[in-house]
């Protein structure tokens, strides 16, 4: 994405040069003004409409006062969040995809989380957000009897990045402080109000008309895996295995585990609705190893995962065969086409909590692999979870484990934990012995999880609405922040193959996906516009509200030089915010 960023910057510089020449030669109309790569288009149209809309002034003042209260709360929150994020960026710099510089730009194709496939929906949401934001400023100018010099739109080259209302400066300064504050708060209030409206529509009838299609949704395919060799691709939906219907990803995993045959017949439906049956010859390969637990590479020289050739000299082709072999031999030698390594087959422990019954028995930072509970063999993380689910708090159990490679046995009493069964108080690695193996090679796309986060299948209570609204903020970067394994950019191809349209808007067919995307990105853009404009720094609305609010407080204090005090406070807060924002974006790269 860095190459794309430089390409975008080069385009801006070229645009800047062309517009500068045009401005110097007088080729631009009077309504068009340029300053660097920023172009503004000014107009007088709309003033009459704003005058008419502003007539119920008592209502608008009440709405404006409510907006001021909301804005002040958000401003305080933004101040704390930006300062905290800046401090964290310096004290614990962890560069991630989220704080890459190009991801600050709301430009589809440049920002990693805003794909080109949804550029029309993003631009639509941005335009609507700018109209309601600046329309709010204009409306409250007239409510407060502040004259408007001009209105218009601001462009970054040819990309709409802002709208504006220019109050007549003398008229604004003559207005009372309350009118000015309501005018500055009106934009963010309208953005938040619009977000609520579109989210009500999105979480209600629109997402209510979308359901997860039957089958296992393929989010990605492992390069060099049996599935890849058979031609299964991202966006396919696996509907049958050996003629047996597959309901979802868990059903696929269970069916493959219970199927002993090396070759399986798999029916897939692609994003065009075409169904094909493919023959998959299963082979075991490594997908993951826990650092420090086993010494094994998860990639070969050509970038493909290493295939497992044998376990203790016995050839195995499926996970069922692999686990069956390990059950009889806790300590085994696994041979791959990338070398051999020793494996202790059991549940690898990632941590022992301080409240664990084992905390006093095992050394700190020891490598621990549990192989038996009460004499029952433990091979995988699932085995341990199932054994513990059948116990109760206060029950005594015998635990057999390899601690730093040596077999140990502990008699311990399970305690009361967060679940309704005995508590061992340990964190566990996936798979067996610190490794995860597969014999197929697809990653499930979390179709149901995303639909649930958008309100699918749930009632629209106030609490639920707030929960879903928060989810929407993080969905475009859900994979980057660890909420799921994938980011969500909306219902776009080939992801739409994982969903079907039904319910109250079923008559719209595939247009429901477009409607959902428009609402999703309009809400996302507007709520982020509102938050960003509440940053208490000039020239943002939050900076103006901070100034008028500070003036109101200082004017009531028995001090002289109130203007100096106000200027000192606003300057300090503004500089703090500027420094915090810079550290948020560039700190992880500078201090890492």
From TrEMBL:
CDD domains: S2P-M50_PDZ_Arch
InterPro entries reported for this sequence: MBTPS2, PDZ, PDZ_6, PDZ_sf, Peptidase_M50
SUPFAM superfamilies recorded: PDZ domain-like (SSF50156)
Protein name per Swiss-Prot or TrEMBL: PDZ domain-containing protein
Domain PDZ: 215-248
GO cellular component: a single term: membrane
Pfam family, one: PDZ_6
Cellular compartment(s): Endomembrane system
Superkingdom of the organism of origin: Archaea
GO molecular function, one term: metalloendopeptidase activity
């Amino acid at each position: 994405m860095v190459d794309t960023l430089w390409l975008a910057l080069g385009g801006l510089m070229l645009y800047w040069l062309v517009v500068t020449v045009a401005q110097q030669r007088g080729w631009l109309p009077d309504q068009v003004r340029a300053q660097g790569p920023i172009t503004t288009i000014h107009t007088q149209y709309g003033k009459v409409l704003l005058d008419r809309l502003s007539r119920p002034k008592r209502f608008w003042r009440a709405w404006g006062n409510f907006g001021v209260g909301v804005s002040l709360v958000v401003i305080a929150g933004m101040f704390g969040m930006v300062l905290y994020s800046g401090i964290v960026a310096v004290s614990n710099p962890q560069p991630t995809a989220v704080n890459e510089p190009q991801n600050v730009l709301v430009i589809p194709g440049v920002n990693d989380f805003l794909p080109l496939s949804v550029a029309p929906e993003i631009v639509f949401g941005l335009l609507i957000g700018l109209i309601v934001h600046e329309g709010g400023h204009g409306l409250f100018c007239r409510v407060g009897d502040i004259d408007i010099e001009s209105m218009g739109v601001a462009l970054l080259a040819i990309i709409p990045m802002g709208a504006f209302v220019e109050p007549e400066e003398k008229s604004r300064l003559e207005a009372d402080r309350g009118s000015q504050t309501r005018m500055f708060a009106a934009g963010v209030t309208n953005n938040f109000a619009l977000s609520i409206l579109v989210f009500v529509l999105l979480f209600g009838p629109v997402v209510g008309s979308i359901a997860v299609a039957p089958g296992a949704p393929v989010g990605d395919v492992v390069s060099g895996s049996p599935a890849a060799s058979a031609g299964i691709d991202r966006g396919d939906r696996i509907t049958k295995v050996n003629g047996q219907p597959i309901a979802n990803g868990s059903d696929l995993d269970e069916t493959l585990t219970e199927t002993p045959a090396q070759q399986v017949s798999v029916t897939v439906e692609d994003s065009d609705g075409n169904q094909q049956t493919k023959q998959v010859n299963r082979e075991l390969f490594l997908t993951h190893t826990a650092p420090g637990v086993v010494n094994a590479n998860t990639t070969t020289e050509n970038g493909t995962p290493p295939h497992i050739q044998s376990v203790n000299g016995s050839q195995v082709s499926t996970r069922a065969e692999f686990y069956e072999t390990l059950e009889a031999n806790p300590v085994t030698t696994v041979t791959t086409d990338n070398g051999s390594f020793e494996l202790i087959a059991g549940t690898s422990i990632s941590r022992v909590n301080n409240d664990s019954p084992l905390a006093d028995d095992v050394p700190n930072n020891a490598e621990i692999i549990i192989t038996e509970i009460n004499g029952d063999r433990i091979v995988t993380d699932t085995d341990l979870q199932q054994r513990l689910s059948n116990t109760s708090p206060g029950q005594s159990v015998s635990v057999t484990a390899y601690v730093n490679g040596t077999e140990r046995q502990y008699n311990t009493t399970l305690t009361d934990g967060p679940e309704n069964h005995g508590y061992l108080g340990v964190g566990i690695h996936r798979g067996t012995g610190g490794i995860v193996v597969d014999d197929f090679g697809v990653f499930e796309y979390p179709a149901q999880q995303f639909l649930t986060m958008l309100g699918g299948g749930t009632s629209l209570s106030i609490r639920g609405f707030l929960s879903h609204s928060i989810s929407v903020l993080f969905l475009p970067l859900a994979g980057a922040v660890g909420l799921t394994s994938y980011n969500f950019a909306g219902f776009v191809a080939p992801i739409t193959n994982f969903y079907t349209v039904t319910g109250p808007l079923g008559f719209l067919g595939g247009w429901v996906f477009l409607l959902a995307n428009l609402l999703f990105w309009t809400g996302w853009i507007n709520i982020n516009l509102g938050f960003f404009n509440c940053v208490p720094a000039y020239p943002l609305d939050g900076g103006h509200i901070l100034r008028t609010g500070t003036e109101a407080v200082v004017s009531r204090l028995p001090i002289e030089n109130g203007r100096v005090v106000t200027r000192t406070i606003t300057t300090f807060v503004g500089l703090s915010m500027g420094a915090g924002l810079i550290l948020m974006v560039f700190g992880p790269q500078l201090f890492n």
